[in-house]
Every structure is written in C-alpha cells, then in structure tokens.
Specification:
The protein is of the alpha/beta class. The chain is built from 13 helices and 14 strands. Helix 4 (about 95-110) packs across helix 5 (about 125-140) and helix 7 (about 200-230) crosses helix 9 (about 265-275).
Length: about 425
C-alpha cells in the first residue's frame, strides 16, 4: 500500500472530496482541465462547499496538490476517474467527459497501473466504452498490461452528515485479484466499509438502480399529490399518517433535478432499449417528475385566479433556485421549469437564492438570481428549495394584502400557505 500513488481526474462534487480523503493515506494528485477551478482549490477554497477550507488547506499543507498539468500525474499508478455523466437535450447519455478523461488516462498510464471509474454509467460502459479508449491511446492491453475497476460515487451534495468516508463503498475489478486490490485501497479510507461486487457490470448496475429507485418512488408520491389536490386532501397530512406504519417508505413529493436522480434513469433506460426492452415504469417516472415544475406553476396561477389576483403583470417571488437545499449546485435544477411556466403568463418574477452562483445561473439559464432578498411586495411567493436561510423569513413583509403562498417542499407552516405538494 505504501507504493500506491493516486491521481483523481475530475475535481467536482465527487472527485475533490474523494481526492482529499485519499490524501490522508496516500500521495494524491488532483487533475482537472479547468485552470480557474485548480487555482481556487490551491488557494484553499472549494466553491462547491463540499470540502471545508480548513480540511482543504490542511490537505494541501500535507502534500495534496491540484493541477492542470498532465505530467504531474504521469508517475501515479492508481487513477480514479470522477467526471460528470450528463444527458443531452434529448435525454440521451453524453459520454464525452468520460471519453476525454479516458484519453487523459491513456496518455499517462503505465504497465501494472490500475484505473478506476467512479462516474455513474449503465452496465458495460467501463469495459466497452472507456477501456478501449485507454487501450488505443496507451497501446496497452487490459488485464495484460494494465487493470481496471469501478467504484460508483455515493456523494450526497450539501450533506455534511453522510460524507464520503461515512457511506459504504461498492468496489469491483477487471479480475478477482484486481477487485481485491481496488477494494483494499478504498477500505483504508472509507470508515463505513466496502462491498466488493463480483464484476464491474454488477457494480455499474448497482449504482444506476439506486437513483432510479428513488426517482420512481418520488414519481409515485408526485402522482399522489396531484390526485389528492384534486380531492381537496393535504398530501403531506396523508404521508404523515401513512408513515406511522413501520415499513412505509417516507418519500415526499417535489422537484427531481440535479445530476443524479434526474439523470441516471435515462442511462438505465437507454441500456435496456439497446437490449430490445422498453422500460415502461422507469420512463413513466421520468415523465412524471420532469413535469412537476410546470405543474407547480399552473397550480400557483389557479390559486391566484381563485383569489381574484390578476395574473398578468403580477409580481411573483421564487425562493430557491439550486437543485436541492443547502447546496450551491444549479445543474439540472427543475426550479427553472417553475420559472418558465410562470413566465408564460407574462408575470414579473424575482428569484432569491442565497446559495446559488448568480453568474452560473445567468450563463446556464439566462435569468437573474439574487443572492440578497429583493425588497418589494409580491402577489405570490413560491418556496421551491428548503434552504436553512428560509426558516425564519418574514413572508408577511413581502406580500400584498391579497396573496398566494405555495410551498413545494412542505417546509413552511401549513397555516400560512395556500397550496403545497
């Protein structure tokens, strides 16, 4: 183990926390193609807020280094690929970041080295898509000259309780012996323990179904919310009552965005379709969840009309824009669907989110997100993200006399809201 030198390729929400953790046991180098990102990290600050400044600065002081120079990782022998795996506008898996990262690995990998993929993929991607790129670029052959593994990421952005070392890690290898070696490396830093899967494909499948299962369960309660709203029944009250049974699963309705739950089911669906199977439940869940932003917008407008509030040119405040609470990540946020839905009614919309990077929001979505509370009176307020900062917000000072409050997250006192999922 003393001879292991690790390179983590991709320093985002997944790669950086893992690299920092590995650096507590091994000589570790973080590689990223974004110079600005690397410069910020080497100055001791992680803009994703997944690694505290204190932990990052301590790691750097103890030898951890981030770089854009490929030569800095050439003498490593254990490569970990942790790049994003998004979908395109048609919801088809986009493996471009993986191809680029595999090319990088191919340029530096040597005989006897191991490359482990952490990016979420459908079964077969590591061996059928990524490894051939490494082989072509390096001129080496899998299981003869170099070896591979797969250990799916289990990062939960914004969660300071379930950090990377506290979540059990699935591992695998291209041979049984390499599987054990990969498992041993992770086991030295993962306090929660590891689970060695029998094959890479099993590990890939395990990851992709984790988030697909959550997606389907959330889709079910989103559908329940629509049904109970039509019946005049409070969905949150129903779920609270049902949760008194020991084996009831406590899922709640809401928006399903981000780079995992809102994306991974499409990877599994495409894989199934390539084998001639049409995954009805998986895709039905995706359609349900992808439509919830527009549904919320329409519910807000209906409530305004019932109260006699003129929707045209009305002023509406949306609280929260990130894809989840207490996290700055705006990737694949479904709050934008609420915004677009309300925009169709020619309303004036203000978005307030103390966590979101306003520059990224402007670049990615073309809208203005305020990091400080906008002063003014609003005809409607939509609580879209349950940030801690919204717990004590005084809504009464922001609202007109005739107003609507809609709570997407079931976060506010139900006595002050007009509607919620």
């Amino acid at each position: 183990m003393n001879t292991v030198k690790i390179a983590v390729i991709g320093l985002g929400y997944v790669g950086l926390p893992l690299a920092r953790l590995f650096s507590t046991k091994y000589k570790t180098v973080g590689f990223d193609m974004n110079q600005a990102r690397v410069d910020a990290l080497m100055s001791g600050h992680d803009s994703t807020l997944e690694v505290s400044d204190e932990l990052l600065q301590s790691a750097i002081a103890n030898g951890f280094k981030c770089t854009v120079d490929i030569e800095e990782i050439r003498d490593c022998n254990f490569y970990v690929v942790a790049v994003p795996t998004p979908v395109d506008t048609n919801h088809n898996p986009d493996l471009t970041p993986l191809y680029v990262a595999s090319t990088t690995v191919g340029k530096v990998i040597s005989k006897g080295d191991i490359v482990v993929y952490e990016s979420t993929v459908y079964p077969g991607v590591t061996e059928d898509e990524c490894i051939p790129v490494v082989e072509k670029v390096s001129g080496l052959k899998l299981n003869i000259d170099f070896f591979a593994g797969y250990s799916p990421e289990r990062i939960n952005p914004g969660d300071k309780l379930h950090t990377v070392e506290k979540i059990k890690k699935v591992t695998s290898g291209s041979t049984p012996e390499i599987g054990k070696k990969v498992n041993d490396v992770y086991a030295t830093v993962i306090a929660a323990g590891t689970h060695l899967a029998p094959t890479i494909k099993v590990a890939e499948a395990a990851k992709v179904i984790e988030n697909s299962q959550r997606d389907i369960n959330i889709a079910f309660v989103n559908e329940l919310s629509k049904i109970f709203t039509l019946m005049g029944i409070d969905t949150q009250d129903v779920l609270e009552a049902a949760s008194t049974k020991w084996n009831f699963l406590p899922f709640k309705p809401g928006l399903v965005g981000g780079h995992c739950i809102g994306v991974d089911p499409y990877y599994l669906a495409q894989c199934a379709q390539s084998y001639g199977y049409n995954p009805e439940i998986i895709l039905a869940g995706r359609r349900m969840n992808d439509g919830m932003g527009e549904y919320v917008a329409n519910q807000v407008v209906k409530l305004m009309l019932k109260k006699g509030i003129q929707v045209l040119n009305s002023n509406i405040l949306i609280l929260g824009f990130t894809f989840k609470e207490n996290c700055p990540d705006v990737r694949n946020t479904k709050v934008i669907d609420i915004y677009r839905g309300l925009e169709e009614y020619n309303t004036n919309i203000v978005v307030y989110d103390p966590w979101a990077n306003s520059e990224i929001a402007q670049k990615e979505y073309g809208i203005t997100v305020f990091n400080h509370l906008y002063e003014g009176k609003f005809d409607a307020v939509v609580l879209a993200v349950a940030h801690e900062q919204f717990k004590n917000i005084d809504l009464s000072s922001l609202l007109c006399s005739s107003k609507v409050v809609f709570d997407v997250k079931g976060f506010l006192d139900k006595n002050i809201v007009d509607g919620r999922l």
